[in-house]
Predict the structure.
Amino acid sequence: MADYLSQIEEAVYDGDEDLVVELVEKALADGVDPEAIIQDGGVAALNRLGDDFNNMMAFLPELMIGGECMKHLIQLCSPHLKGGKSAFKGKIVIGCAKGDLHDIGKSLVATQLAINGYEVVDLGTDVPTNKFIDTAMAEGADIIAVSSLLTTSQYYMEELITRLTHEGKRDKFRIAVGGGPIGPEYAEKIGADGYSRTAGLSVKMADRLMVHKPGDPLVVEV
Ligand code: B12
C-alpha cells in the first residue's frame, strides 16, 4: 500500500495525469483506502509543490497541473469514500472566500459532509460575502463554511462574521472556517464557531456545531 501511495505522490508531483489515473484505479482495485490516497498521495504532493513554489523551484503551470491531477484523483476516489449515518443532519452553505480560486480542499470538505448526512449548497470559488449571507438566509442553513488558502482572502471570513453581527443575523448560523493558512487561533480571533484541519475531521466538527449554542467555545478538530 505504501508503495502505491508514494508512486501516486510522485505522479501528482510530476504532473503526469495519465499515470495518476492508472495508479489510483489500480490502488482502489487493490483495496487501498481512498482517504489515504487523497491525503498521503495527493495532498502530500501538492504540499511539496507549494514548498517548491515558495522556493521558486516550481511556478504557476506546475501548480495548475498538480491541481488538475488532484481533481482526477478525487473524482476517482470520491465514490469509494465511506459515509456514516445517512439520516439528514443539517444544511450547510459552503464556498471559497472572495478572491480565492483554490477549490480542491473546499470540494473535499463538501463531499465528506454530503456523504455523512448534510445537505450541502456549494457556492464554488470567489464567493462575495453578500452571497454567503443571502444564500444562507434563503436556504435556512444551519452552518456557513468558508475555505481560504490565500492570506489575502482570509480577511473575508472576518468580514462575514462582522456583517452578520451588524445585520443582527449572527445567531442564525454557526460559522466554520478552514483552509491552508487558517488555524484555530485565527478562527478564535475572528469569532468563528468551528475549525477543522482536514475534510475528514469536518464531519465531526459539523456534528458538534449542530448542538453548539451562541457563546459556546470554538469547536476545534485537529
Ligand atoms: C494547487 C494550487 C493552486 C491551483 C489551484 C487549483 C484549484 N482548483 O484549487 C492554482 C494554480 C489555480 C493556484 C493559483 C494560485 N496560487 Co496556489 N496553490 C496550490 C497548492 C499547490 C495546493 C492547494 C491545494 O489544493 N491543497 C490540497 C487541499 C486538499 O488542501 P487544503 O485546501 O488546505 O484543504 C484541506 C484543509 O485545509 C481543510 N479545509 C479546506 N477548506 C476548508 C474549509 C472548512 C470550512 C474546513 C472546516 C476545512 C477546510 O480540508 C481540506 C482537506 O483535508 C498550494 C500549496 C499548499 N501547500 O496548499 C498553493 C498556494 C495555496 N497558492 C499560493 C499562491 C500564492 C497562488 C497564486 C496567488 C499564484 C499566482 N502568483 O498567481 C494563485 C492565486 C489564485 C487565486 N486567486 O486563488 C500560495 C498561497 C500563499 C498565501 N499564504 O497566500 C500557496 C500556499 C503556495 C505557496 N507555498 O506559496 N494555486
About this structure: Residues 34-54 form the longest helix (21 residues). The longest strand covers residues 90-96. The chain is about 50% helix and 15% strand.
